[in-house]
Input
Amino acid sequence: MKRILLMLLCILALNATAQTVTRTQHRAAVTQDAVTTGTMNIRKPDYICISTNSGREQLIMDGTKFTMTVGSKRHVTDSRKNNQFTTFHSVLKAVINNQPIPSGDDIAVAVKNGKKIITISPAKKRRQMFTSFVLTIDSATSAIKQLRMNERSGNYVNYDIK
Output
């Protein structure tokens, strides 16, 4: 039932703009990357839903709550309790609302070929699901172009947004 509600939220998001997304999951131990397609919906002030593989894989930011569903595994965290997601939440919220990117020790911003590349690496390297987040923004339109979530051992999940 919860999956159905999450899917409906993604589909029926008011004032949302749907964009096409290609999700690539890279595992260092596996030769072939897993590639799926889906959509991304954004609703201000701070709601994003990326749904791929017919809703079986989802990444949802709803306020301070982050939910990631991959297959039958569901991971939920709140940015008020998880420092890694606190910074990620503030950056995403700034991007969605077309505000300046916050500064901090764990945020690096580079501009290259008309794109703003924001790298978020936690200062404290404790047991985290992701070692870093890399967000690529089109400098001219402020549109999200790519989100890469790096894991340990060279694994990553990459979302290309068109």
Observations:
- The two ends are 30 Å apart (CA to CA).
- The chain has a mean pLDDT of 85.
- The longest helix spans residues 83-96.
